[in-house]
């Protein structure tokens, strides 16, 4: 598989992760309800889904930089 194809797949997976973790983060931070119904976990005072959102955003940005590079 080519580098560009792999990076495009990573971009689409990270977009899906951003949407899902963003949905969970929104409900957890602003609505104060866990959309999964079982109670969400906290780590250092923030819901775990917020860390997932940050991670997927970083993966997205790094993959976009990889797609834009000329090498």
Written as H for each helix and E for each strand, in order along the chain, the element string is HEEH
- How many domains? The number is 1
Q: So what's the overall shape?
A: elongated
Secondary-structure class:
mainly alpha
Helical run tally: 2
Q: Enumerate the spans where pLDDT stays under 50 for 5 or more consecutive residues.
A: none
Placed side by side, the strands forming the largest sheet appear as: 1-2
The total of beta strands comes to 2
Query: What share of residues are in beta strands?
Result: 5-15%
Give the end-to-end Cα distance, rounded to a whole number of Å. 16 Å
Radius of gyration: 15 Å
* Quaternary organization: single chain
Instruction: Indicate the percent of residues in helices.
Output: over 70%
Q: Give the rounded overall mean pLDDT.
A: 89
Largest sheet: 2 strands, antiparallel
């Amino acid at each position: 598989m080519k580098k560009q194809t792999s990076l495009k797949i990573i971009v689409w997976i990270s977009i899906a992760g951003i949407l899902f973790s963003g949905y969970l983060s929104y409900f957890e931070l602003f609505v104060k309800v866990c959309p999964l119904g079982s109670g969400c976990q906290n780590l250092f005072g923030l819901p775990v889904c917020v860390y997932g959102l940050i991670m997927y955003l970083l993966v997205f940005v790094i993959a976009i930089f990889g797609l834009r590079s000329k090498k």
